[in-house]
Amino acid sequence: MLGKRPNAILFDLDGTLLDTAPDLGHALNRVLADSNRPLKKLTEMRPYASHGSHGLLKLGFGDDYNDLNRTQLRQQFLDYYEQRVCVDTTLFAEVEELLQVLTQQQMPMAIVTNKPTLYTQLVLREIPALARIPVVVCGDTLSVAKPDPAPLLHACELLSSHYQYPIEAQHALYVGDAERDIEAGRRAGMRTVLASYGYIAAHDNVQAWRADFAIAQPSQLLDLW
User: Fold this and answer.
1) Domain identity same for 66 and 96
2) Residues 50 and 112 occupy one common structural domain
């Protein structure tokens, strides 16, 4: 237990707040079909959805995803994803209710994602429940992305400006479902929460990530203080 209420909660996006795997997977299968490759099932793709285009293309193409075709295949993927960025994407169960409670508690909240700004904005405008989160830091907002801690620290700065009082990283929580999330949170000096309901593969050694807490469903976040 935290022992006291955090001063802010920062969330990853894909695999933590949103189930984006169906639309990401659709984009991958479009690219695979163009290359006459076998399509992947959603159950195969889901654990890799937090790893973005590179992780999914590596899953689909294996060693044939390399320096010779990486740029071309990624652009194909992103073009298909942009066409269908929020068709089957949904909030994870309990997320909307969680955000409502946190809003009622006047909890400062931010999203820190490695998803590029273009696709983040396209998704967020389709999900009204996320409009209550005032600060969004994307993978290309700064020159570095997670697992670098800078995007999380930048989010704290933006929250401080928004709320007109200091939001200190050491008193904040970062919630995410990937190793890079936990590493970034730890390096930023935050307490970290593993969203174990997210995109975690069977081979992931989550104990080695050293998250401070783990939750099996979003509502359990409220039990931490």
Assistant:
1) no
2) no
Neighbours of 104 (CB within 10 A): 8
- Whose structure tokens read 């005032």? 134
Per-residue pLDDT, averaged over 189-199, amounts to 98
Does residue 2 have a pLDDT over 90?
no
Asked if the structure places residue 51 within a domain, the reply is: yes
> In this structure, are 110 and 219 located in the same domain?
yes
State yes or no: is 12 an active-site residue: yes
43 and 153 co-located in one domain: no
The answer to whether the bond into 108 is cis (omega within 30° of 0) is: no
Pair (44, 102) in one structural domain: no
By the 8 A CB rule, do 61 and 73 touch? Answer: yes
Tens digit of each residue's pLDDT (9 = 90 or more) over 37-85: 999 999 999 999 999 999 999 999 999 999 999 999 999 999 999 999 9
**Per-residue pLDDT averaged across 145-161, rounded?**
98
Q: Which of 12, 19, 23, 177 is catalytic?
A: 12
Alpha helix segments (H runs only) across the chain: 21-34, 42-45, 52-61, 70-83, 95-104, 117-124, 150-163, 179-187
